[in-house]
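User: Let's play a game. I give you a shape written as C-alpha cells, and you guess the letters that built it. Ready? Here's round one.
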C-alpha cells in the first residue's frame, strides 16, 4: 500500500564506474514501457497523483500513486491487467476505499475521461540486498521520457525499503553516495514528464507546510516532527537547485527551510540531547553559501525598483567582485547529501523514552526571546549595527518557533501574535537589506561615480527605516503579550 524509496541521480563522471560495478552484482534486467494518463485539465498532477499503465516485460500493470504525510512514503496501488489495455479509466478504484477517497478528493467525479500525457521507455536493472534487518531493492534505470518529438534522459538509481527500518536503508545507501557522488532527487518520473510536457525550465517552488503537533507529544517527538516538516520544505527546492532548474524563489525557500531548522535546533538545544552538535554548524555553512546568491536576487527584486522611483542614474547592481559559489554543486556535494540523509533518518526515528515531558518547557525559550526583543526596544536607536542585526535574527527566530508550536495553542491567539510580529520583521528585514546594498555599492564608486547617488539614497533610507523599526519595536513591546 505504501512505498518508501530514495532516488538519486548519478553524475556523468561516475556513470561508467557505477554501471561497471553494478553489472558485476548480476542484477535482473527488465524492460519497462509506461504510459501516464491524466484528465484534460491535468487534475491528477495538480494533486500530485500519478496514474500509469506499464508493460513490465510481458505483463501490463496499472499503478496509482499519491502522496502521504511522509515525504518519502507514497500511497501505491497496483493492478495486474489481463490483456493489453486499449484505454485507461478509474473503474479499478471504485471499490477500493482508500484509492476512491484520494481520487474523489482530487476530481470529485470518477467518470472524467483520461488522456495520454507522456511515455517512458526504461531498462531497469534490479537486485535485492539484505542490510541488518532490512530488505532493500536497488533499481538502476536507464532510458528516456517522451512526449511527441521531445525526450529527456533517465539515468538514476532508486533504493526502496521492502521491509525494515528507514534508518537501515539510509545506513546502507551512504557508502554508495561516497563512492559514486550520488545526489538526492525528489522528482518522480511523473513530475519530470509533466515538466517536459509543459516546457517548464524550473520546478515548482515548495513553501513551508502546516505542522500538526499533539499535546501528548514528548519533546523529542516534537523536534523530530519539526525536522521532518522542515525537510519537506527543503527537499523539492534543494532538488531544483541541484538539477540546475531553479530561480530566486527556490533559493529563498531553501534558505528559509534551513533557517527554520537552525531555529528549531537552537530552541531545543537546552532541553534535548538528540541533536548532533555538528548539524547546526553544517546547516550554517550551507546557509551562508546560499546567502550571496539570495542577497543579490533580493536586492535586484526590491532595491532596483525603489532606485528607479527615486530617479537614480544607476539602475543595475554592481558586477560580482569575486567568484560566486556554485550552489547547484553545493546540493550535489557528498557532504550536503549525507547531512540531509542524517536529518531524515533522525526525523523518522521512534522516540523510546517513556519519561513525561511537556511542550511548556519550550515556551521558556519563547519567553526568553520575547523578553530580549522587548529589552532591545528600549534603546534600539543606541544599539550598534551588530546588535541591531541580532535583534532582527531574534524576531525571525521567535516567529519560526511560534509557528512550530502554533497547533498546540488557540488559533486566534497565535494569529494575533504573529500579526504583531510581521510588520516588525519586515521593517528590520528591509533595514538589513540596505546594509547589504551599501556593502555592494560602496566599492563600486571608484568605477562608476553614479553609485554616489545610490549611496546617498541608501543613507537617507537607513535613517527612515531605523526610526520606523524603533517605533514598531516599541509598539510590539508595549502592546503584545505572550499567549503561551
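Assistant: Ready! My guess for every position:
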Amino acid at each position: 500500500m505504501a512505498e518508501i524509496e530514495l532516488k538519486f541521480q548519478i553524475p556523468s563522471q561516475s556513470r561508467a564506474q557505477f554501471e561497471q560495478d553494478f553489472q558485476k552484482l548480476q542484477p535482473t534486467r527488465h524492460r519497462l514501457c509506461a504510459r501516464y494518463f491524466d484528465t484534460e485539465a491535468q487534475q491528477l498532477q495538480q494533486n500530485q497523483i500519478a496514474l500509469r499503465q506499464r508493460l513490465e516485460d510481458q505483463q501490463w500493470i496499472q499503478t496509482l500513486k499519491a502522496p502521504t504525510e511522509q515525504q518519502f512514503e507514497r500511497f501505491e496501488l497496483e493492478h495486474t491487467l489481463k490483456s493489453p489495455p486499449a484505454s485507461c479509466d478509474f473503474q479499478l478504484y471504485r471499490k477500493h476505499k482508500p484509492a476512491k477517497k484520494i481520487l474523489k478528493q482530487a476530481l470529485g467525479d470518477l467518470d472524467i475521461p483520461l488522456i495520454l500525457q507522456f511515455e517512458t521507455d526504461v531498462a531497469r536493472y534490479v537486485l535485492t540486498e539484505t542490510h541488518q534487518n532490512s530488505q532493500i531493492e536497488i533499481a538502476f534505470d536507464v532510458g528516456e521520457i517522451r512526449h511527441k518529438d521531445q525526450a529527456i534522459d533517465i539515468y538514476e538509481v532508486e533504493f526502496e525499503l521492502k521491509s525494515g527500518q528507514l534508518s537501515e536503508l539510509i545506513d546502507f545507501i551512504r557508502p554508495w553516495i561516497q563512492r559514486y557522488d550520488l545526489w538526492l532527487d525528489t522528482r518522480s518520473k511523473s513530475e519530470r514528464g509533466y515538466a517536459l510536457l509543459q516546457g517548464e525550465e524550473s520546478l515548482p517552488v515548495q513553501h513551508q507546510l502546516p505542522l500538526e503537533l499533539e499535546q501528548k507529544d514528548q519533546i523529542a517527538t516534537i523536534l523530530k516532527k519539526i525536522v521532518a516538516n522542515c525537510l519537506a520544505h527543503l527537499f523539492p527546492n534543494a532538488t531544483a537547485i541541484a538539477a540546475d532548474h531553479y530561480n530566486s524563489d527556490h533559493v529563498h525557500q531553501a534558505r528559509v527551510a534551513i533557517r527554520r531548522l537552525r531555529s528549531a535546533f537552537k530552541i531545543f538545544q537546552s532541553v534535548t540531547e538528540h541533536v548532533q552538535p555538528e548539524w547546526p554548524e553544517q546547516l550554517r555553512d550551507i546557509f551562508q553559501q546560499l546567502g550571496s546568491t539570495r542577497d543579490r536576487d533580493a536586492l535586484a527584486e526590491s532595491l532596483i525598483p525603489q532606485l528607479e522611483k527615486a530617479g537614480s542614474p544607476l539602475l543595475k547592481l554592481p558586477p560580482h567582485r569575486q567568484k560566486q559559489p556554485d550552489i547547484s554543486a553545493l546540493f550535489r556535494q557528498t557532504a550536503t547529501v549525507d547531512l540531509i540523509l542524517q536529518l531524515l533518518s533522525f526525523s523518522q526515528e521512534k522516540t523510546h523514552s517513556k519519561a513525561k515531558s511537556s511542550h511548556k518547557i519550550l515556551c521558556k525559550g519563547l519567553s526568553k526571546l520575547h523578553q530580549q526583543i522587548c529589552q532591545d526596544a528600549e534603546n534600539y536607536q543606541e544599539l550598534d549595527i551588530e546588535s541591531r542585526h541580532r535583534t532582527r535574527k531574534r524576531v525571525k527566530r521567535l516567529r519560526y518557533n511560534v509557528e512550530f508550536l502554533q497547533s498546540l495553542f488557540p488559533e486566534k491567539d497565535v494569529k494575533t501574535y504573529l500579526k504583531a510580529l510581521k510588520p516588525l520583521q519586515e521593517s528590520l528585514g528591509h533595514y538589513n537589506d540596505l546594509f547589504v546594498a551599501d556593502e555592494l555599492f560602496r566599492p563600486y564608486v571608484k568605477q562608476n561615480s553614479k553609485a554616489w547617488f545610490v549611496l546617498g539614497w541608501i543613507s537617507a533610507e537607513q535613517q527612515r527605516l531605523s526610526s520606523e523599526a524603533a517605533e514598531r519595536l516599541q509598539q510590539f513591546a508595549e502592546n503584545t503579550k505572550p499567549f503561551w
